[in-house]
Each structure stands twice: as structure tokens, then as C-alpha cells.
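Example 3.
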Amino acid sequence: PAAAQQPAVVGYSVSTLANPFFQGMTKGVVTGIKAHPGLTLINTSANGDANTQATQVLDLINQHVAALILNPINANAIVPVVRRANKAHIPVFTLDRGAACGKCQVNFLETDNVALGKEGADFIAGRLKARYGTIKGNVVDLEGLLGTTAGDDRERGFATEFAKLSSANPGLKLVARQAADFDADKGFNITTQLLAAHNDIDAIFNGNDDNAIGAVRAIRQANRFVPIGDPKHIVVIGIDGTEQGLSAIRKGQMDATLSQNPLTMAAQTVNYIEQYLHGDKAGIPAHQFWPHVLLTKDNLDTPEVKQYGLWGDQVAAQ
Amino acid sequence: MSASESGDTGSGGRFTLARLKLGGGLGRALNELTIVVGFVAISLYLAVTTPAFLSTANILSILLASSLIGIVAVGETFVIVTSGIDLSVGSVVAFTGVMTGLAIHAHFPVPLAVLTGIGIGAFCGAFNAFAITVLNMSPFIVTLAVLAMARGLAFIVTNGNTIFDFPDSFDNIGGGNLGPLPIAALIAAVVFLAAWVLLSRTVLGAEIYAVGGNREAARLAGIPVTRTLSVVYIISGALAGLGGVVLAGRLDSAQPIAAVGLELNAIAAVVIGGASLFGGKGSVLGTLLGVLIIGLINNGLTLKNVQPFWVQFIQGAVIFGAVLVDSLNQKRRGRV
Amino acid sequence: MSASESGDTGSGGRFTLARLKLGGGLGRALNELTIVVGFVAISLYLAVTTPAFLSTANILSILLASSLIGIVAVGETFVIVTSGIDLSVGSVVAFTGVMTGLAIHAHFPVPLAVLTGIGIGAFCGAFNAFAITVLNMSPFIVTLAVLAMARGLAFIVTNGNTIFDFPDSFDNIGGGNLGPLPIAALIAAVVFLAAWVLLSRTVLGAEIYAVGGNREAARLAGIPVTRTLSVVYIISGALAGLGGVVLAGRLDSAQPIAAVGLELNAIAAVVIGGASLFGGKGSVLGTLLGVLIIGLINNGLTLKNVQPFWVQFIQGAVIFGAVLVDSLNQKRRGRV
Amino acid sequence: MATLLEMHGISKSFPGVRALADVSITLERGEVLGIVGENGAGKSTLMKVLAGAYRADEGRVLLDGAEFAPRGPRDALDAGIVVIHQELSLVPDQTVAENIYLGNLPRNPLGMVRRAVLHRNSRALLARVGLDIAPGMPVRRLGIAQQQLVEIARALSREARVIVMDEPTATLTIAEQRILFATVADLRRAGIGIVFISHHLEEIFEICDRVTVMRDGVTVATRPVAEWDEAGLIQAMVNRPISALFPPRTSSIGAPMLEVEGLSSTGRFSDVSLTVRAGEVVGLGGLMGAGRTEVLKAIYGAMPDTTGTLRIDGRPVRTRNPREAIAAGIAFVPEDRKGEGLVLPFAVRDNVALSTLDRLAWLRMFSAAGRTDRLATDAVGELRIRTPGIGTKVGSLSGGNQQKVVLARALTTHPRVFLLDEPTRGIDVGAKVEVYRLIGELAAQGGAVLVVSSDMLELLGLCDRILVMRGGRLAGGIEREAFSQERIMALAALG
Ligand SMILES: Nc1ncnc2c1ncn2[C@@H]1O[C@H](COP(=O)(O)OP(=O)(O)OP(=O)(O)O)[C@@H](O)[C@H]1O
Ligand SMILES: Nc1ncnc2c1ncn2[C@@H]1O[C@H](COP(=O)(O)OP(=O)(O)OP(=O)(O)O)[C@@H](O)[C@H]1O
Ligand SMILES: [Mg+2]
Ligand SMILES: [Mg+2]
């Protein structure tokens, strides 16, 4: 009864808010906590710095929170403070990215970034095959911010798959690989210059939707936009499913995005915490990949996708 | 400022430029700007090794990519000439960008929305100016605080969301073309030209140099120091506002996280162009060269498809090299 | 300053107070540092409004959190006193961190690995020093180039990967405790103490101030300017190297992307502590206060559960307020 | 025993200027060698070569008969050559003691500053130069004359064989000058060779054993002091006869033009009331730190927190800042030309035009290069500013010529009230005569001139009336008929 009156404090540290995906995740945590009257939240953001995050988590531990939701900047760098939390008997739940110490976390709800990169390569291969009959063409890779797990893992997934595809299909070429840092303006500038240098680009893979938006705008600026389906169309695929990404897909400017759903993902973590605090620890899996979907203009408004959730639209609507 | 610094303080191009008569004048002005050697070296290297470099499309793409940092660097030039610094420009670009976006979504007519963005930028600049001149605070701290506050406000007013989907008439400001020319580059060109006139050919420009060269002497000579400094920070803020508009238009969207770190690039461009953080020195032409050098480097890295891990290293090394040429050149000419 | 104040400076309240309380230097120094008002104000506010603030664990956490920026800011203090700037420290922290990590993985004994890190930092500093003194380049450009190059190298040598899994004997440097005290904070304390002695008690310290205050006068008085500047940049680099070691230990891992933007925070701490970017002014004690103010603000924002979107805004506003108190205080005392 | 110091055939050029051409001097132990010459003659450059601050293009230096080629100031100092440079070279944010021992701090084996020793020794040195301030005071707070004394104390702190004093008395009043001369006598007795540069010829005659005259970068003549007379010296310096130093005071004195009443500034000066009439030259005398500079600045609107009233031509005016003062017809020449008078990185042209930027401009907005050039060319011609061109950076001019640029700038605003703070500081006899003539003309044209000077002879020769300040108050005034050095000293020091 006493516990019911005194809500349990959950500490949350998100790696950064510099990206719509993490804003979605934060909103998922906040709404998830609101849905549980027994929980309250201390909400922090580490601004992309692992040291700041370690400090924030330590401050949360010092306040004796009942549980921690961590979205680590780096799986290894978070380990020392996670161990501190373990020592203080505070359960740790990791979101999107784990802590590299296995059982030190109760649950690790992961986005499979390597798979996202791989599926991006496959999508491009599929479109090129539809265009040329065989998998061939010139592809640009605009990767995300170097040194971030999302950027590096997506790149690894894409690069590995692309290497496989191109060794099987000699006509498939990577004409440029540049880091656009998850920054739309960088994506814009690099794409502009690549378009000036190459007039035969078939597809652009992007580390996230912001990069993709930059690419889309650059294609428009260079007067190189032709609608999807036209053989001269430049295929653009992003990752995340931000509101602007969805909008660009609806308008036919962008071909596809690979979307996870940070809202439902975060809500699930909060559910696990509730479950954990009520003593039902057995039902919580140690590790779980949160599913993702490929979104194109064709499936964007189908019931299955609605069922999965278009977080970009939902977040903006809130 | 140390005496030796003052010893090698070139006249910063101003007075030379003031007498520019396209014949010997420009030659002399360029001669003052020894960074031109670095600029030419990089251009030549790229022209020779990269066939695509000299295409019209590529050169326009460099100009387009340089337009945002160029617009902001012009404002920073004014500030640095007065021996100040404006660290807030990157955040102000983001803040004015989202405010302009919100104005558009609130159905402001496009010109009014643009003015809103520029006006909010000018207001941020006025805040900097007030704190620096009246409250007597250090420009570094004031603009650092505004860096944080404007960025925070950008997040607060948007709730972290991207504002997007603007009419083409707005987007064209940043991403449209006039004939073959990118409008953003044209805007930057106008800004550079106006700034060049202002700084090298007007009374206000001379006053800005004087305030930067010796504030006390300027005051005693009857120059309105507070007003001059205020104008300078307001210009910088307003140009950051214009930058926010251009960026929002280019991306058809405004993000609170946009343009992080832009201030450092803008300051770098100004310093590469020969300005000194100790004031009294610097020129619009120098800044233009600095901006273009940064643009050239990035373009070269993209064209040569340099692997991302190497990009930063090479960026640093090339900037180092370009400025090294400059400083050895100055040393050789006994200007040290 | 009013003549009456200057008149009694020699024998008046200032010195008496100092002698009474703290036996000289420290009291005088504190009296000079009006930023102490801002520091006290923030502390009081947090102590009164936030019960958790005054707990031992919390205070130790502030000290631990401040230790990295503190170590780096000490080096930056030396540089800024000479009217220089070192923008490379954040990148050097990352680069030395991963190099130390690689050394550990290559089975270097821990002390040797630590020395490797510090030594590589010192080497980066020596590179800065060489370019600034011998090649006569501007500190801003040189250290900006090294910022990019060191960051690039950190990616290149690690292939972008995190280096992790170090022995506890290494991790303790950054993350261990000695009794209740965090070892990193103890290291920072030693660094501050040594720097304080060096800057305020030794001949080298006085020469550093002289070089920053009037380089030509220092040169004419026979002070070895080049050597002094070199020492300063090497110290800054070596301390960034130490910072890299501490950070790697604290996080049991070294990432090439660590400590981005740390330079701006370190410079901010130094400037909040009363230093001027024009040189000749600044103190280790001031920097300590600046570092702690930043630490206090961040701690307070977490303790008070300020919503992340508001965090940056409030950070900016509080820094502004703290320094405003300082500058109004100075104005009131007629030290303008 | 070899000659203490010989400089042979020294040449040195700067871009556009041949500063020294085959200059030779010698100096014996215990000798005071005077060097005189017009502004820009090359005196300071020669001494900077000796000090290792510049490297000569040609020539050699022998010290005690041995070749001496300093690679930098450090070498010269180690060899016992100590130079008090013309341009103050102090570190403003360091203490007086630290400045005295700049580059030479007493240290213990650990490299720590021996603060007690430092302060004890500094106190002794300060006493020796007659400066009564705490060694721990930051130099920033000192007036310019006090700073000069700190520089002299620094020279005395060094183990010297040769001491060069480049215009050490330019900023000093008579009292400190006496102390300095006593010190010079001590040094000479100790066998130290002294080079003494000054534009005050009476000082040269008083303490020098031999005098070298320089002109346009060459040595014109060196003779024992007894073989020179004042007219001859001036003739050798300027290469033309100069009849009288001071023009006769002929202007007719009219109605009160500048009236100051009850001017006070807390802690600086109080209740200063004075009147300067049209056509009148009023001197403001007093000891160092009496507050003269600050009174001028207060009138000019450059001193915050002042009270009192101001009338020009009987009409009340407010000067809340220099801009308003200029608009009211007031001009001000500051005493510290580097800190307050000039924008050093600017060209001569742009310093001259600094106060008239808008008036010169086209539509009051766009710089008019032609008009600016003409103004500057005229000023250079009129004041005989020795410069390679109007585009030359003002920082590279000789000290005296820099001073003339400040004067030129102040005259461009067509003022009627002239506040001149040490207007002839550091300028040569020829130029002084020109400045005096100029002041005479300003008065003759109906201007009101208030001039602060520490050169008592100058005040006596130039003024119609002398006011004397002591401790921030006006101690009294003396009419021309009653002028005498003794009366001024009495008002300034005793009361
Ligand atoms: N650093 C420099 N750069 C260029 N020209 C210089 C420099 N220093 C001196 N000169 C020039 O050299 C000449 C000699 O100057 P110097 O300072 O030696 O004169 P001076 O005899 O000391 O004059 P004054 O009595 O005014 O002090 C002048 O024409 C001056 O403009
Ligand atoms: N900026 C300042 N801060 C503090 N004290 C000052 C300042 N300027 C001048 N003083 C002091 O005020 C007093 C009056 O100085 P002021 O310069 O007006 O005297 P002065 O009569 O002109 O003498 P001087 O020959 O030194 O110019 C001196 O004690 C001086 O040290
Ligand atoms: Mg001289
Ligand atoms: Mg005075």
C-alpha cells in the first residue's frame, strides 16, 4: 500500500535528442510512464557524450531510482555505470542499444541496425533489377555519423550485403561512400556535388531519413528529379520513418524507408519495468529485437503498417 | 594584444581595398591576402587531378554548398574585426529557421516569414550587443550563453520536431535556381558585395576597424563605440537569421538540431581569410577566400571519394597546409 | 578604478583581509575573483531547494564529473593566459584515449600505457607549439587543424571501433575510488594544485603571464618567448592526454568519437573563471571555479529533473547570470 | 683598457626607409654620451640594434674590445647592456615588482619566485627612483609617468655595464627628473657607461660628457659637451637656424570661451573651476598624479561619473562623451599616444582622418579616398611628419612623428577649445617650435588652449597664465608677469 502511494521513480537517459528517432523514443518513454500511475520519470539527455551520460546515470543512481532505462551512446562505455547500478540493486533496462555486459541488464530491447543496412542494400538491388532486368547500376552510400552505433552498424550491414551483391553482379557499382553525419544539410551538399560529378547515379542509400531528405532536396535542386518508375529516377532509401521521411514517401520524392517504432518499443520497456517492480521477473526476456518494416508509397497506408505504427506521424500528432 | 602581434598586423586589406581600381588595386589587395596562394594551389591540384572539378555544375555546387557558411561568416567577419567573437550563430541559424518555419505554417506570407526570421536573428544579435556593451560582459561568454539558449529555444518552440513542408516560393530561397544559378549562392553573393562595400568603403566600416584596432583611441576620437559594436552584433545576428531562412528553404524543413558547430566553421573561414581574433584586421575578400577554401576542400574530398575515416584528417591537414603557405609567405616577405 | 581605491591598494583592506584569513595569496586571489559570487549563489540555491544536493555522494559525483573537463581546462588556462587558444584538446582526448587503449591491448604494462597516452598528448601539443612559434601560424588555425587531424587519426587507428575491456588497474584511474574519493577527482586535484603552484608561484608562471600580457615587452626583457609558449602548449597537450587516460578508464573503453566539443566547455570554464582571451589574465583558481560552476549547473539540472529540451536553455541562462553578477560587481567596484 | 662600447658602420633599413646609414659611436666607462636628433633620425633604432631587438644590416659592435653580436635581447642583457626603451614595455596586468624584475625574477632552486626578496628589492629600487607605491600594485593602475619610473627601476635592477636611456624624462616632471639625474651620477661613478637620449637640450648640457648629433640616419658630429652651445646643437640637428623657441605671445585675449565650474570626480579630483578665454593659452602644471590628465578628460567627456558645469562661449554644454565634446568644438590630445591616441595597425592617413570620417565621406556615408588622402597629405606637410607616405602604418613611425599624427588628427575637427595633454612629449626641438607656433596660431585665431605639461620651461614660455594642481585640486594660478619656476613648484608641492 505504501508503495502504491509513493510512485516508483524511473531514471531515463537518452543518448541524444538531436535526432527525431530519439525524440520518438523519449516520447514513448514519457507516455509509457504516464500510462502507469505507479511510475514517475526523471528524464535526461546525454547530448551525444558518453562521459556526460556516465555522470547523469551516476546522478540517477545517487538518487536511488527504482529502475533505469538507458539508451547508451556506446555499449562498452556504459558498462561501468551499469555495474554501479547493479551494485546499488537498481534494475537496468536498455533500449535500442545494449550494455556490453550481458546479464547486467534485465532486458535489452534492440534495434537490429545491421539488418536495417542489409535490407537497404537489398531494396536497392530489387529496384535496380526491376529497372534493368539484372542487378546493375551506380549506387551512392551516404552513411551516418561515424562512431555512433547506429551509423556504424547500418553501414556495416549495408557494406557487407552490397559487397556480396556486387561480387555476384559485376554491373553493380558503389560510386561514392561519404559520411553525411545524419545531417540533412551535409546530405544535401554531398549529394549536390556527387550529382554534378556523376550523371548516372541510380540509387542513394542513406544512414537515416535526415540524410535522405538532404539527398531528395539536392536532387530537386539539381533538376534531376523524375518520378518513381521513370528509368532515370534516382532511388532514395532512408532509415527511421520520421514524419518528414513519411511525407516525402507519400509525395513520391523518396522511395522507401526502413522504420522501427521507438514509441511502441519504449512503451514495451516501461511495461517490463512495471512487470519487474511487481515481482514478475520471469516473463521478461533478456534480449529482444524489435521488429522493423520497410515502408514504401504502396504499403504506407495499409492496415498492417497502421497496426505496426507510423511513429513519425504519431509523434507529431501528439 | 601583444606588441609583436601588432607588429605584423597588416592593414587588413581595408585601406588597400578602399582604393581598389580594378587595375593595380585589386592586384595589390590580393597581394595582401597571401592566402590566395593556398586557394590557387588547392584549385590547381583539383583541376589537374579531377576531371569533374572544372565543370560548371561542380563549380555551382561548390558555391551553393558555401552559401550558408558564407552568409554567416560575413557577419562573423564584422564581429571579429572589432576583436569580438560570435559563438551563437549556429544556434541562431537553427532557431530562426524553425521560427520561420512556424511562421510559414501560421500562414504568414513568405516575405513576412523571411523578415520574421531575419528579425529574430537581429534580435538575438541585439541581445548579444546589449550584454556586451551595456552590461560589459565578455563577448565569448555572452555569445556562448546565447548559443545554448537559442538552441534550447529551438527545441522548446518545436517540441523537438522537424518543421517541414513549405511552399515552393519559400523553398526556392534556399534551393531554387535562377537560370543556371542557385538562388542561395546569389543571395550570398549579394551579402558579400554589400558587406564589402560596407566594410571597405563606408564610414561605418572604417569605424568598425578603428574600434577593433584600438577601442580607447576610437572612443577618444569621437567614434560612437557602443553604437558601432551594437551594429556589428546585430548584423551578425541578422545574417544568421538569413542563414536560417536559406537553410530551411534548401531542406524544405527546419530542425532544431540544424547547423550545430557552424560557428566554428564560420570563424575558421574568417581566420583563414587573414583576420586576427585580436581585432582590427580582416576583410570581406579574405573571408570569401576562406569560405571558398573550405568549400573546395569538402568538394575535393567528395569528388575524390576519400574514405570517411580519412576525411577529417585530410580536412585538417589541408587547412594547415593552406595557412602554412600563407604564413611562410608573410615571413619571407619580412612582414613578421 | 577610482584613485582612492588605487591609493589604498597597497596597504588597505585587500591585503589586510588576505593576511588575516588565508595567509596571503589565496585570500587575495578569491577577492579578485568576483565570479565567486555566482558560484556561491548557485550552490546556495541548489542546497536550499534540492535536499539531495548536499549529500556526500552527490558532491563526490560533481567532483568526478568535473574531473575530466577540469584537467583539460587547466591546460587551456595556461594557453589562454598567453593569449593563445587550444581548440584541439577534445580531439586529443579522444586520440590519446584510443592510443592508450591500443597500448593496453598490446599488453603494455598499465603505467607505460598511461605514459604513452600522456606522451602522445604532449606530442600533439609540441606539434601545435612548433607551428605557432616556428612557423608563425595563428593558434586558432593550428589547433583547429589539429582538432580535425587528431580526430581523424582516432578513427583511422581504430578503424572506427571502440577499444574496450581494460584491466581494473587501468580502469581505476578514471573510475575507481580511494576510500570514498574518486581517483579521477584526486588526480584532477593534484593537477590543479600543481598548476596553481606553477602559475602563481614559479618564475615560469610569471613568464607565462608576461608573454601573454605583453609579448614584445617580455621579449625585450630577455624572456625566452618561444620556449615559454612551447611549454604551455605541451602542457595543454599532455593534460589532454591525461584526460584521455582518465576518460578511457572511467568508461572502460575508448571511442574515437569521445569528448567532441570538450574544448568549448574547457575554454568556457577558463573564461568564466575570469581569464581574457586577450591574454595576461586568468588563474588556476578561477578556472577551478569555472569548472565547478559548470559541474554544479549540470548536476542541478539532473537533480531538479529539468526536462531535456529546457536543459540547454537553462545552462545558457545560468552561465549568463553567473557572469553577469560578476561583471556588474566589477562595474560597481569601478573596475571597468 | 679597451673602449667600453664601439658601434661601427651600423646600417639598418626598413621597407621604404633607410633608418641608419653607416652610424658609428663610442662610449667610455663612466661616461654619459648624449644622442640628439630630430624625430626619426634613427636614435631609437640604433639603440634597438645594440639591445638585440633588431639585427643590423651591416656594421659591428665591440664590447670591451670583443666582437658582440647579440642574437636577441637576452644576449644583450646577459652582456650587461640594459636599455630603457622609448616605448614603454611593461606588462599591464603584472605587479610593479614583477615588472621591475621582468625576465629576471629572483628564484629559489625549485624555480619558485622568492617573493619576499622580490618585494624587498623592489621597494628599495622604487625608493631610489622616488616612487612611493606598493610593489604589489598592478602596473595597469599607474599613470604614464609612474610607469616610466618603473622602467627606470627595472634598468637599475640589472647588472649593467651599459645603460641606454631612450627619452627617460619625456614623461617626468622636474622632481623625478632631479632624482633620475642623481641616479645617473651614481651610475657614472660606478664606471657604467650611459647613453642618454633626450629632446630636452638643457638636460643634455647638464649631464652629458659628449654629445652625438644624428640626422636622417647618419651621425653628423660628436663632440665634448663643452664644445657645443645650444644654437649650434639645434643647427646641427635640424640643419637650419631656429631663432626663438617660443613665439611671442601676441594674440589679443577676448571673452571667456571655456568655463568650467565645480568639476568633480569622486576619488580623482574635486571642485575644479577654471576659465580659458578666447586667444588665451592656459597651462596646467603640477606634479605627477596631481589629476591634470583626468581634468582634461572630464572636460572632454571621457571620464565617467563627473559632476560640474561647462560653458563654451557662455552657453552651457554637456559633454557626456567625446563625440559630444567634439561637436561642441573641443579637441583633445591624450598623453598616451599608443594607448589612447593612435590605432597602431592603421596607416597614417587613416589615423589623421579618424575624427572626421563622416565629414570627409561622400553623403556622410561612403569613404571618399581622394579627400582623405588630401587631408592626410596636407597634415603630413603642415606638421612635417616624417613618414615614407600617408599609407605607412603609423606604428612604424618614430615616436615623435607618431605624436604629430595625434596632433594632426585633433586639429581636423575645426575645434576652438584645445585640451592638450603633454603635446610635445617626445618630439624634437624643431617640431616643438612648430607645435608652439601652432598653439600660438590657434590662440591668435581666437581659440582657447588649455595645455598640460610637465616641462616647466615649456609652460613658462608658452602660456599666458598657469594653473597649478595639487592632490586633485586647483592650488592656484599665476599670471604671466609673475611667472617663475619657484612659484610653480611652491604651489605644486608645498602649498
Ligand atoms: N619597425 C619599424 N618599421 C618600419 N620603419 C621603422 C621601424 N622603426 C623605425 N622605423 C623608421 O626608422 C626611422 C628612424 O626611427 P627611430 O625610431 O629610430 O627615430 P628616433 O630618432 O628614435 O626618433 P624619435 O625622436 O621620434 O624617437 C624612422 O623613419 C621610422 O619611421
Ligand atoms: N585608469 C586609472 N586607474 C586608476 N588610477 C588612475 C588611472 N589613471 C590615473 N590614475 C591615478 O589618478 C591620479 C591622477 O592621475 P593623472 O594622470 O590625472 O595625473 P596627472 O596630473 O595628469 O599626472 P601625470 O603626469 O601622471 O599624467 C594618479 O594617482 C594616477 O595614478
Ligand atoms: Mg626614438
Ligand atoms: Mg597626465
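Residues D 14, 17, 19, 37, 39-45, 86, 386, 396-401, 428 surround adenosine-5'-triphosphate (ligand 1) (CB under 6 Å). Chain D has 18 helices and 20 strands.
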